[in-house]
Structures are given as C-alpha cells and as structure tokens.
Amino acid sequence: MTSPKEVFKLIENEGIEFVGFRFTDFDGQTHQLTIPARDLSEEAFTKGTNFDGSSIPGWRPINRSDMMFRADASSYFIDPFTAHSTVVIFCDIVDPDSGEPYIKDPRSIALRAEQYLTDSGIGDTAYFGPELEFFIFDNVLYKNNHHESMYHIDASNGTWNTGNKLEEGNTGHVPGIKGSYFATAPLDRLHDVRSEICKVLDRCGIESQLHHAEVATGGQCEVGAKFNTAKVKADEVQMFKYIVHNVCDMYGKTATFMPKPIAGDNGSGMHVHQSIWKKKTNVFAGDAYDGLSEDALYYIGGIIKHAKALNAFTNPSTNSYKRLIPGFEAPVILAYGRHNRSASIRIPAVNSSAAKRIETRFPDCMANPYLAFSAMLMAGLDGIKNKIHPGDAQVEDLYEESDHGLPEVCGTLEEALNALDNDRDFLKEGSVFDDKTIDSYIELKRQEVMRLNHAPHPVEFEMYYGR
Q1: Is 401 a catalytic residue?
Q2: Given 214, 295, 364, 382, which residue is catalytic?
Q3: Is 133 a catalytic site residue?
Q4: 126-151 burial by CB neighbour count: b if 16+ within 10 A, else e?
Q5: What is the pTM of this model?
Q6: How far apart are the first and last CA of the chain?
C-alpha cells in the first residue's frame, strides 16, 4: 500500500473497526494510540495527530511538549491479537512548528540514512537481515527495593530442573549448558510455539524463513525472516518482537530479548547481515577477499574503526555487556574472516554474487533497530568514502588465541557511551544524526548506567558481606 486511499479501502473491505498509530522512542519501545476506524481522516497522513512529546524520554521538555505523529500509508499490518479488528500503521514524528520530520525520531533517522546512501553515489539500496535470538521461559519473577533485590527464572527445559519434581512431571529430557542447538523434541519443547510465530509473521507480511532451538538451555530460540531495506526492516523488527511476545503470552509463556538473562550460558544476539546495491547490482560482490569487492572491505573497515561508538546503539543496555564476554561464543574481537564466527564480522558462505554480504555479529536485540541499522550504515559508508581497509582477514579460532593483538568491542555501556561522545562526526554526515540527538541519547542511557552502578548486587553480598 502506498496511498491513504488504499488504507481506507482496506478498512472498508476487511471491516476494520479500529486504527492504531504506532511509533518508536529512543529506547526502541513502541507506543500506540488507537482510534475508531470511522474517525480516520486524510489529515492523519498529511498533517498528523497531536500527542504529548514530553512523556517520551529524551524528546521534549514539558513547556514545549506538543508533537505530531504522521501515519505512513506504506507501512501497516492487521493486528492478529486484538479481539476487535485493528489495523496498525507505523508513524513518523513531525515537529509541529516546522512540519518537518523530527530530528530525534528514530524512524526519520533511518530515512535520512537511506537518503544519504543515495546522495553519496555509492549505492541506492542498503539491505539488512538481522537474526533475532530470544529466550522463552515459563515463569519470571524479579524485585528491586531499598532493602532487597532478586530475580528468579524458570523453564521446564532448563538444566537446573533435572533434579526437580515439576507440576506437570519431569521427563528427564532436559538439555545441558550449551546443549540446545538444533535440538529436536522432546529435548526441544518449543517447536510449536516457534511455528506459530512463523505463521503469524507470514500473516502480517513478514516472510519467515526458518526457526530452531538455539544453543543455551532454558528455551533459547531463533526465528529467521527475509532481509529488507533499512527502514522497512526496522519496522519489521518492531513487528517481530511484538508478535513473539504475544504468541508466547497466548501459550502461557513469556519471551525476552534481553541479551543475558541466564548466567553461565550463551546470550542472545542480533547478527545483522548487510549489503549495498546500486542499480540492481550488489556493490559488495567483487574479486577481492572471498568474492567481496574493495568497497565491501572498506565498509568492514568503517564498522571496525567505529565499532566502540556503534556499541552505544547496537548494544545499548548494561546487560548487553554481560553477553560480550569470552567463553560464550561472544563476538568481541574486532576482526573479519570467511566463515569465522569467532570474529565480530563474518563473511558467510554463499552460492552467488547476489548473495554476497557481511554479517556483523556483536549487536543484540536491545538495539533500537532504526538507530542501529542507521549507525552501522553510516560507519560503513565512512569506511568506503575514506578507503579504510580492515587489514588482513582472520581464519584462525580467535577464541583460542589470547594474544591475538586485535581490538575488541566495549566492555561496558559506560565505555560505549564515552566512545560515542568522542567519535560522532561520521554519524552527522548528511545531517542523518545531529549533536542534540546524540547528546540526548547519551544522557538517557547514562541514567541506566547510574541506576545499575548505584544499586547493591546480590553477588556483592556473597563477596563482601562477611568481611
């Protein structure tokens, strides 16, 4: 759909009762306002709808709170979970004073990044194919007060349950630590849940491609979907997470995209496949290393050079860095190599030049997809423009080499925010990001760092209480 007229036709033909306007904030959280379908007007697509921008963290002060969201008729889906038929339309945020896209709106940033690619002459389309990993649990409890802090996770297929009597009975089919990869039933108890997720994705217009049990115990999963352009794929990531959460809720389970909910086992990432095309030709295909082009190598060079700043967007939670530690297939080493999953950038094996691409392995699903895809694209384009070569490819198992001498990703969110503060100019090219946006984002994320740093942790009681 490309016009409001077609949206009105959909509403009439499908008997749609409600319209949900949905947009995304800095943190990647989605927000929605719903109206009766009878009240939808052309102005929702041309001028926009007023809302309180001061209630969205990092956006507007209360004395300048009025903002507008403008519906995008080309991006919608019929909500499969509502009792009353509802079409959800993605929206761009508009500055009410100028009528222009709001500079801090993540979706508008992705649109500007795509325009910057076109203006650069390097390509006209950037494709992103993220692999989203997540956990599905049976029960989750957590509490944080002045005098107590706790969390408790349970899953019938968690390795900790091998010796427990469960209400539904314990069959003994429980995977161990790092024992779930490509598991089959009865070891894998979530096959039907993932199949249902795939069916709902397809119904909502997202082409699912695969699903399987992932490595970690306790219900780690992956569901794969087809790649798309930066802004559209970011829309789809938001839809994907919404669908996963709600399908799991229907099954009486709970899903989390938190990178490291379980200590001592693999965490969840969001490996992002990327390529640039120009006039329907893959810019990343060539006769350099492993069938890549020189531009593809320079793109990798840009990602590696700016990786620590990128971490602020691609790994934007304090929990992200509990995943990025040695010993759990964590892609911490800033290197690239053919088929090499121990490097942070892998060159996948493919059967054609059209499929040639790179895979950036350090991001995770806490990332706001609009900001993460835009930032990686800007870093890669900076690499191409300035011919930043990534050095020699790495073919060895880097996890086994303690003295590899290669740079690594950040170790904490605080380090990543400092890196972004000091390395931001590549993001401001073409006015894709600006200083106010970056400063607001850093300030918002520093509050998360401060909250964690100021709270006693149960591990600290184990280490220090009796001294």
Answers
A1: no
A2: 214
A3: yes
A4: bbbbbbbbbbbbbebeeeeeeeeeee
A5: 0.95
A6: 66
Q: pLDDT digits over 273-326, tens only?
A: 999 999 999 999 999 999 999 999 999 999 999 999 999 999 999 999 999 987
DSSP state string for 127-186: EEEEEEEEEEESEEEEEE-SS-EEEEEE-TTSGGGTTS--TT---S----TT--TT--TT
**Bridge partner list, 282:** 277
Q: Are 347 and 338 in contact (CB under 8 A)?
A: yes
Identity of the amino acid at 391: G
| CB of 224 closer than 8 Å to CB of 208 | yes
Token pair, residue 214, equals 């992932």
Identity of the residue numbered 389: H
> Residue 51 forms beta bridges with which residues?
67
Residue 148 is among the residues annotated as catalytic for this protein: no
CA-CA distance, 186 to 193, in Å (whole number)?
14
Helix runs in 130-280, H state only: 191-203, 230-250
Q: Give tens-digit pLDDT for 388-436.
A: 999 999 988 887 776 778 999 999 999 999 999 999 999 999 999 999 9
Marked catalytic residue, from 138, 222, 265, 364: 222
Reply yes or no on whether 43 is catalytic: no
Residue 132 identity: L
| Active-site entry in 194, 211, 361, 424 | 361
Quickly tell me which residue has 């509802």 as its tokens: 86
